[in-house]
Amino acid sequence: MKDPKELKPDTLSLHAGQRPDPATGARATPIYQTSSFVFDNSEIAAGIFNVERTGHVYSRITNPTNSVLEERISALEGGIGAIATSSGQAAMHLAISTILDSGSHIIASNCLYGGSHNLLEYTFPRFGIETTFIDFRDIDLVKKSFKENTRLVFGETLGNPGLDVMDIETISNISHENGVPLLVDSTFTTPHLMRPFDLGADLIFHSATKFLSGHGVVIGGLLVDSGNFNWEKSGKFPQLTEPYSGFHNMIFTQEFGPAAFISRARKEGARDFGACMSPHTAFLVLQGIETLGLRMDRHVATTLQIVEYLNNHDLVDKVIYPTLATHPDHKLASKLLPKGCGAVFTFELKGRREAGKAFIENLSIFSHLANVGDAKSLVIQPASTTHHRMDAASLEKAGISEGTIRLSVGLEDPEDLINDLDLGFRAAKKIL
Amino acid sequence: MKNIYSFSGPEGLKDTKHPIVFIHGTGMDHTVWTLPIRYFLRKDRNVLGIDLPGHGRSKGKLLETIPDMAKWLLGYLDHLKVNEFSVVGHSMGSLIALETASLAEKRAVNLVMVGTAFPMAVSDVLLDYAKNNKPEAIDILTYMGYSNQARLGRNTNPGMWMTGSTKKLLEKSNEGVIYQDLKACAEYDSGLKSAAKVSATTLLILGKKDFLTPPFKANDLINSFKDPLVKEIHDSGHTLMVESPNTVLDYLIEIL
Questions:
Q1: What is the CATH classification number for the domain harbouring A140?
Q2: Which domain holds residue A207?
Q3: Chain A residues within 8 A of B55 when measuring between CB atoms
Q4: Is A4 a member of any domain?
Q5: Most buried among A31, A80, B109, B118, by the most CB within 10 A?
Q6: Which of A70, A81, A251 is closest, CB to CB, to B10?
Q7: CB–CB of A54 and B156 under 8 A?
């Protein structure tokens, strides 16, 4: 008997979760743009509601187009199941709200996307969930930060804005020793560059708005369950191990085993919070994922060229990208991200805010906006936009400077992009 | 028996009147039967979703042969004071169900064998991987456990990746479990004799695209039963309860 060959990621990107539509023969995934689904009869309806039959009821909870996407990302990440959500923020919220209650505590990396930071720092405390933000490079501090009520550890594969590479293996081991799962935001790396479950993460979410869809046309999120975490052994998650009165006293670990988390997330979170993805969005994300491998390789290759160009430019103080030997996580990145460190990074432009403004306003191919992971190249200066109220000292505390510029490198010709950046530098030079 | 786990719904077993006993396959546990169990619970039937000794939540020593497993199951039913019962098994569980129905011919009302064959041959390569607790054993069981089409997904259970879920359940089994189970299947040699003794109403549910127990390998078994019902699901592989859960349930409802 030959060893079976698992399908490779590029094949899964095109096929996982989908077969030609049995009703029409359509090769592409149809967009099931419907709010609800007709039952064959009352008995079948009762069966689907009671989770004794499979099928769709209402698109807030499941939808056939979304299901294809959910299977596809599960396959690519090596998970058991997923839920498509209205945004990456909704996916993060769904993960946390499924297993944390008022009185719970989170340990989070201190280098998070601003939206994630806001949710943890300002919003969840209103609901009794507190977060301690720490430097994940300080392993002793990570170990010391666990409290009796800690229920989750959370970080990003590549942190914001310094592209801190999370040592997922080490952090997950510590989390598991404390009976707590590790949730990872894998948006910047996608399963093409890193599969966090292989390193020990338990739950992953993506902003599918970014590289997964890849064309800047949708807002969407995905929450994926590895099925690895032992909720019963932990003993800290009654949401999954004790009767849930919201679903006929179902005990999720008892009835769904490894799928306990994702089952509760759907039966409670998708049902009650309702932050579902539109089927049309799911279709567009699927279209993006079909070319994920090709695009990510190109994104990374072009990024490397631009990083080299910037690293040698007179008007650049510093480029922050983990493939550079100067990056604090260079060695870890070589181990965890052999295919590359993504296509979003920052550099420090000499001069203050005005130089940055001149630089950005003279770019024509790079688009000045607040997003990343588009096929088109993007640029933003935090000090003059997202962080414009902060003075230099406050910016420094946030890990950025007045001259920090963030690029999201797209799929254009690398030479054209470098020429475009050159125009920006010429304009900035006049200010200096 | 105190270390044995069986699932009978949130309220537990109501009484001992004619339960339906569900038995899992190699390296699995009762959760493979969650959907049909939920149906029969809704219909106020007694059910027992068994975790065999050393599997799932059940502690205890692994049983080495299919007849030993059947004797153990009857002992468990005796312990619960169950007289009449119906028994449903998948793969290895189907052989246990067969042997149980044969040993307790007057007590077994219905026998359902899902994804079955006799003999249930296991390749030396697979046994060797399993014996050495190599992950390749799980890879082979997962790969061969599904039809070619199902390996691409399109689960009728929304959002769940079929092969990923099966692999995870197998990975959660303790060391040595998969080997012991496969060995028990391979060494079981009294299937035809046992089938001839069965007086329970018998149903075989087979997947036409099953690589592990292809339907033609159930022919001798089918011919050994007195008057079996046979249902083939044309687009399903070996893991029928995942690939075709609603059809499997419909067939179970017909007989149970």
A1: 3.40.640.10
A2: 9-289
A3: none
A4: no
A5: A80
A6: A251
A7: yes
Intra-chain end-to-end CA distance of chain A, in Å: 70
Give chain A positions within 8 Å (CB) of B154.
Answer: 17-19, 68, 71
CA dihedral A406, A412, A414, A415 (to 10 degrees): -110
Is B90 within 8 Å of B114 (Cβ atoms)?
yes
Residue A366 within any structural domain of the chain? yes
Asked if A17 reaches chain B (Cβ–Cβ under 8 Å), the answer is yes
Q: Clarify whether residues A224 and A111 are in a common domain.
A: yes
Same domain, yes or no, for A26 and A111? yes
Q: Does one domain contain both A236 and A275?
A: yes
Digit-by-digit pLDDT tens for chain A (432 residues) are 566 778 999 999 999 999 999 889 999 999 999 999 999 999 999 999 999 999 999 999 999 999 999 999 999 999 999 999 999 999 999 999 999 999 999 999 999 999 999 999 999 999 999 999 999 999 999 999 999 999 999 999 999 889 999 999 999 999 999 999 999 999 999 999 999 999 999 999 999 999 999 999 999 999 999 999 999 999 999 999 999 999 999 999 999 999 999 999 999 999 999 999 999 999 999 999 999 999 999 999 999 999 999 999 999 999 999 999 999 999 999 999 999 999 999 999 998 889 999 999 999 999 999 999 999 999 999 888 877 777 888 778 777 888 999 999 999 999 999 999 999 999 999 988
d(CA B26, nearest CA chain A) in Å: 16
Residues A96 and A118 in one domain: yes
- In the structure encoding, which two tokens stand for residue A298, read together? 């190109």
Q: Which of A186, A184, A189, A158 is nearest to A171 (CA)?
A: A184
The domain tally of chain A equals 2
Measured between beta carbons, which residues in chain B are less than 8 angstroms from residue A7?
151-152
Q: What is the dihedral of CA A251, A256, A257, A262, to 10 degrees?
A: -100
State whether A220 and A342 are in the same domain.
no
Domains in chain B (CATH in brackets) are 6-255 (3.40.50.1820)
User: Residues of A with CB below 8 A from B160's CB?
Assistant: 70-71, 74, 80-81, 259, 262
Rounded to two decimals, what is the model's pTM? 0.97
Domain C-terminal end among A267, A289, A311: A289
Chain A and chain B share a number of CB contacts under 8 A equal to: 140
Look up residue A244 and give its two tokens.
Answer: 């849930």
